[in-house]
């Protein structure tokens, strides 16, 4: 592994050290319970299945063998990670980690920053330390989850899916500019329209590939067009036709003021992570278990701006300034583009996730700075 990658992992683990130590302590006391909470697909009773990855298309017995191998790999990596934490405690940010120890640390991070599957907006008991943190906020999280959907694009040649979006007005969805560019293009007059032969929809279902739709999920909404794309930030607003008969998906409210210093605050991301082959495959598999394109709750904390962090991305946010971007440490993947970043305490949206650097940081548009933005005002976006 590259030296820069190792330094990123050490720095990230140092940032998360109290939470990683809490995970290690629980793993020592009751590893089975922690594993079941962090990786419910490792429980044979869960009935989970692989959507993408080594279990895809295999008969049941073969899937069981793949699941057992995945569970054993997770257990071994976590044991290595617990030992590596001792080195990190002793040597601090200057700790020298072997490639195997680095993978172990990343596996511990996968529990400290989990990606929890949702069922009708609800989630099972979370692994430490989130079991105690998230509990009081279950109802608010469920309400927010109902308003987050997968942006589908029928007709795409590979995966008919562009990213994540969430309701911000009765007839408006917020996502990233780079998500909208999958199916729409800007014309010479500055207006946006669908590419020839493509359409788009917002599907609120939690597992789009399940044999039956979730009974509690709102219906699919057709995306009628692009309201507009922000001139400086990776943000787009899409027009939908609201379903007058379905009131489960309601517009989320954006925070209108700076949420304050990161210390002591928690947040969560809601979205549809997709496999990202830029990341370490073994650790990615330990977090997501080869189940992708399903709605997940990804808790984390805000971060101070990391040194050298990118806040401009071609071609959609070249006009961004440093204060236009917030940072967080939730576990995300490529399909999380367009996800809402929600302040846990208030349940108000504070960010629009648009990218990040593996095991280093995640970046989101700081939405509180757009309280007077003309594009959002035109779309009727609500702030606190």
Descriptive account of the structure:
With 384 residues, this protein is α+β, with helices and mostly antiparallel strands. It is 29% helix and 21% strand. It has helices spanning 3-15, 17-29, 31-38, 60-91, 99-112, 130-134, 138-145, 177-180, 281-288, 374-379, and strands spanning 116-117, 148-152, 161-169, 172-175, 184-186, 192-194, 200-203, 221-229, 236-240, 267-271, 296-300, 302-303, 325-328, 340-343, 349-357, 361-366. A hairpin with a 5-residue loop joins strand 14 and strand 15 (349-357). The chain is globular and about 60 Å long.
Number of helices: 10
Radius of gyration, CA atoms, in whole angstroms: 20 Å
Q: Give me the secondary-structure category.
A: alpha+beta
User: Quick one: how many beta strands?
Assistant: 16
- Rough shape? globular
Strand order of the largest sheet: 1-11-10-14-15-16-13-12
Average pLDDT value?
A: 85
The share of residues in helices is 25-40%
* Residue windows where pLDDT falls under 50 for at least 5 positions: 43-63
The amount of beta strand, in percent, is 15-25%
Distance between the termini: 45 Å
Q: Element order, helices and strands?
A: HHHHHEHHEEEHEEEEEEHEEEEEEH
Largest β sheet strand count, sense and barrel closure = 8 strands, antiparallel
């Amino acid at each position: 592994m590259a030296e820069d990658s190792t330094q990123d992992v050490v720095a990230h683990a140092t940032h998360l050290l109290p939470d990683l130590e809490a995970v290690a302590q629980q793993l020592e006391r009751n590893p089975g319970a922690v594993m079941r909470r962090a990786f419910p697909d490792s429980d044979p009773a869960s009935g989970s299945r692989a959507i993408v990855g080594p279990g895809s298309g295999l008969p049941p017995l073969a899937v069981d063998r793949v699941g057992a191998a995945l569970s054993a790999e997770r257990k071994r990596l976590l044991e290595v990670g617990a030992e590596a934490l001792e080195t990190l405690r002793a040597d601090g940010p200057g700790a020298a980690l072997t490639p195997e120890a680095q993978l172990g640390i990343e596996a511990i991070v996968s529990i400290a920053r989990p990606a929890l599957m949702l069922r009708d907006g609800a989630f099972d008991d979370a692994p430490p330390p989130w079991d105690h943190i998230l509990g009081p906020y279950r109802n608010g999280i469920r309400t927010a989850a109902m308003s987050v959907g997968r942006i589908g694009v029928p007709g795409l040649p590979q995966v008919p899916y562009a990213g994540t979006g969430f309701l911000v007005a009765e007839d408006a969805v917020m996502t990233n500019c780079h998500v909208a560019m999958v199916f729409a293009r800007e014309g010479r007059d500055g207006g946006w329209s669908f590419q020839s032969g493509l359409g788009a929809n917002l599907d609120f279902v939690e597992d789009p590939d399940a044999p039956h739709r979730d009974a509690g999920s709102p219906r699919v909404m057709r995306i009628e067009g692009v309201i507009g794309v922000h001139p400086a930030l990776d943000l787009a607003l899409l027009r939908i036709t609201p379903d007058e008969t379905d009131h489960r998906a309601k517009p989320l409210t954006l925070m209108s003021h700076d949420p304050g210093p990161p210390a002591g605050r928690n947040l969560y991301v809601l979205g549809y992570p997709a496999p990202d082959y830029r990341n370490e495959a073994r650790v990615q598999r330990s977090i997501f278990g080869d189940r992708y394109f399903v709605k997940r709750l990804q808790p984390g904390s805000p971060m101070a701006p990391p040194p050298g962090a990118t806040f401009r991305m071609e071609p959609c946010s070249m006009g961004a300034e440093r204060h236009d971007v917030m940072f967080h440490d939730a576990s995300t993947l490529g399909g999380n583009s367009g996800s809402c970043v929600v302040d846990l305490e208030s349940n108000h949206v504070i960010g629009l996730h648009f990218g990040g650097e593996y095991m280093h940081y995640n970046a989101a548009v700081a939405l509180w700075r757009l309280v007077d933005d003309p594009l959002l005002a035109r779309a009727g976006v609500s702030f606190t």
